[in-house]
Amino acid sequence: MEYISTRGQVAPIGFIDAILMGLADDGGLLVPQHIPQLSADMLKSWQRLSYQELALEIFTLFVNDEIPCADLKRLVDDSYATFRDEDVTPVRRINNGLHVLELFHGPTFAFKDVALQFLGNLYQYVSGKTNSIIHILGATSGDTGASAIEGVRGKAGIRICILHPHGKVSKVQELQMTTVDDANVLNLAVDGTFDDCQRIIKELFADVDFKHRYHLRAINSINIARILAQTVYYFYAYFQLANKGQADKVNFSVPTGNFGDIFAGYLALKMGLPINKLILATNENNILERFVREGVYEPGEFRGTYSPSMDIQVASNFERYLYYLYGEDSAAVTRLMGQFKADGRIAIPADKLAAVQADFAAYGVQNEECLDAISDYHAKYDYLLDPHTACGVAATDKLADDGEVTIALSTAHPAKFDEAIRLRGIAQTYPPQIEALFDKPQHQTVVGGTNDDIKDQLVKFF
Ligand SMILES: Cc1ncc(COP(=O)(O)O)c(C=O)c1O
Ligand SMILES: N[C@@H](CCOP(=O)(O)O)C(=O)O
């Protein structure tokens, strides 16, 4: 398997080079040159594998022989040994039509750990094997940062700098990032929104001289490893239901911001997983909902919501989706992304919109609807949803048809977002790992939101 850019200007590269390149050097995003096609027999043979065994099978398709099988197995086993649930990502039945895929049993209580425990170990492995310097630069609306830091803190030969929007993440998210005192970690609290942080890092990555001089590596979902690792749990969840004979017409409902998690589901679909529809849930920052409903991709006004990790206007992985929507035509993607840069807007024709709507249905959840879902499911099923998961569940209630079964991705533990949950008078006990954070000193540098503000910090740190 080799990897190419959505903009077509990068010669095909192998898996390790793709991981190290992060953002494609032509400004696009890397994608596999071919999407592996899985036969029904192959899917059946995977149906009873453990999470780790399944991850190994799927990664092998994308890594080829660049990492010997025994090494890849060790990376997988080490990455998922840190999870608190033996199933890694267990599926809980809520009612006949709804199951919740709990993705929050990793070290930082968010779905990001599934990919970032692996990517942290992979970076350490690659650095050891290839003598590459690993200087990670990432942007976060709260969860990626904590998870990426946890994945590499204290690791020799790796440094990590994370930008988060100052004052716009939850208290627990802030503590998870800023109480880490390892010398290889730098937290920058940026005066701006997550979109500003993401734009800055993308512009710094796109400055190829700067990127190479400082050995910048990505941990955001612009890194293809993130997407591949997140694909595994779609298969695993489907198999959990299939093993019980409940996998007819399965939808996946995905709370969405950067289009990374749902793109992993789309990749699983393209590989042959029989998904009925992908339900795309946004909060009030609903650019993606409007795209699926109307075919227009155009940022709206930023809204602070109860699901702050999804307070995102410009969705990083949207470009990967456009690439497939336009039949893997990199010239079309380059034209559309150029148009977005110039006009701040992309409008797709009716035939393309029909193709979008064949795979996706979308709903934008308002703030009060999100809290209503938390209260309702707590009262009716004694199940506490975090506000992001609640968006996915609220969207499922609107969009799933009778007789369909939906697996709603639960992307974070409710303890990370107690501020919102308390608004509905629901008290929760923090897990001890989170409770312990409140007594620790914090380390972060508040900075302005220009590229030069960040460059100054990076030059000192790297
Ligand atoms: C808890 C939570 N849910 C959902 C999302 C949205 O995921 P994505 O950005 O991959 O669409 C995020 C952030 O990415 C998140 O942190
Ligand atoms: N919600 C994310 C935003 C960054 O997304 P990523 O998937 O591209 O890393 C976060 O929690 O930081």
Summarize the entry for a quick read.
The chain is an alpha/beta fold and 462 residues long. Helix content is 46%, strand content 15%.
Rg on CA atoms, Å? 20 Å
Q: Detail the poorly predicted runs.
A: none
- State mean pLDDT (0 to 100 scale): 97
Number of helices: 20
Class of the domain at 91-109 and 237-422 in CATH? Alpha Beta
Architecture of the domain at 91-109 and 237-422 in CATH?
3-Layer(aba) Sandwich
Coarse morphology = globular
- Find the count of extended strands (DSSP E, 2+ residues): 15
Give the DSSP E fraction (strand runs of 2 or more residues).
15-25%
Main sheet attributes: strand count, strand direction, barrel closure: 6 strands, mixed
Q: Within the largest sheet, what's the order of strands?
A: 3-4-14-9-10-13
Helix content: 40-55%
Here the CATH topology of the domain at 91-109 and 237-422 equals: Rossmann fold
Helix/strand/pairing category: alpha/beta
Distance between the termini: 32 Å
Ions, cofactors and other bound molecules: pyridoxal-5'-phosphate, ligand LJ64HWYM
Cofactor: pyridoxal 5'-phosphate
EC number: 4.2.3.1
GO molecular function: pyridoxal phosphate binding; threonine synthase activity
Domain Tryptophan synthase beta chain-like PALP: 98-405
